[in-house]
Automatic annotation (TrEMBL):
InterPro entries: Znf_FYVE_PHD, Znf_RING/FYVE/PHD. Residues 94-169 form a coiled coil. Keywords: Coiled coil. It comes from Euphydryas editha (Edith's checkerspot). This is Zinc finger PHD-type domain-containing protein.
């Protein structure tokens, strides 16, 4: 058994970061179980989002050659955010460059009116013209950078939408169990298994994505158990079977006669 350092949920099967050696369940790792299996030998080089964030440069270099991810990850969004910040800093100099061009053009106009020292004036004009050409090239480069900035902003917005949709899909098959008192030696998988035995509808462990306790508004001292399963039908069957029985703590081998309720989980 492992415990995910992000959601604090216990799980049997997940992924391991090749840098920090941390074990993560599939939802927190940002990859499906099937996608992780398909990595093959590349499993040994998989990195968590925290470790990826420390190597943004290397991540952006290989991004064009890597296969498209099934779902956007926070590490990719952080990389794009840093790139947006860098480009924004470059764009801030555009106004000063335009002001410099105007000043140089004014100097050229003034030099043309001076009749004395023709050779000096010609040299000055040539130098200023060259500088104007260089600045114009820089302006064109910044205009191109502005287009890249707009494209990155669009990508960033799409990734935000994708992450929101991914989180909603991952929460649609949740089951919420209320009334089970938390104990130091608690095994959440065993609790779910005992409830399944009582109601006659068991959930195989391999069909459970993760199990975690979360606080609720009305029960601050006792957190509800959230069970994420693979199938919507399995979730509905389990909840329907639980509603047909009156479950108390004693049915699960726990102390007390408090009622235990099984409902559809929060979306």
């Amino acid at each position: 058994m492992f415990r995910c350092p992000r959601c604090d949920a216990e799980f049997r099967d997940g992924v391991q970061c090749s840098l920090c050696q941390g074990h993560y369940d599939f939802p927190c790792a940002g990859i499906t179980e099937g996608g992780y299996r398909k990595l093959g030998d590349r499993k040994s080089t998989w990195k968590c989002s925290s470790c990826k964030a420390t190597g943004v440069a290397s991540s952006s270099t290989t991004a064009s050659s890597a296969p498209a991810a099934k779902s956007p990850t926070p590490a990719n969004m952080e990389s794009i955010a840093l790139e947006l910040k860098r480009i924004s800093i470059q764009m801030s100099s555009l106004q000063s460059l335009a002001t410099n061009i105007q000043a140089i053009q004014a100097d050229i106009s003034e030099l043309k009116t001076i009749k004395a020292s023709v050779e000096f004036v010609q040299c000055s004009i040539e130098a200023l013209s060259n500088r104007c050409t260089e600045i114009s090239q820089e302006v064109q480069s910044l205009l191109k950078t502005r287009e890249e900035l707009q494209q990155l902003q669009q990508r960033f917005s799409k990734m935000e939408v994708g992450i929101n949709e991914f989180e909603q899909r991952s929460q649609i098959n949740n089951i919420e169990i209320k009334g089970v008192l938390s104990t130091p030696s608690e095994n959440s998988f065993e609790v779910v298994g005992r409830i399944g035995d009582v109601i006659g509808c068991t959930i195989p462990k391999e069909h459970i994505n993760y199990i975690a306790r979360i606080p609720t508004r009305n029960e601050k001292g006792n957190k509800s158990i959230i069970v994420s399963v693979h199938s919507r039908y399995l979730k509905e069957d389990f909840v329907a079977a639980a509603k047909k029985r009156s479950i108390v703590a004693a049915n699960l081998g726990l102390h007390g006669e408090s009622r235990i309720f099984v409902t559809l989980g929060p979306h």
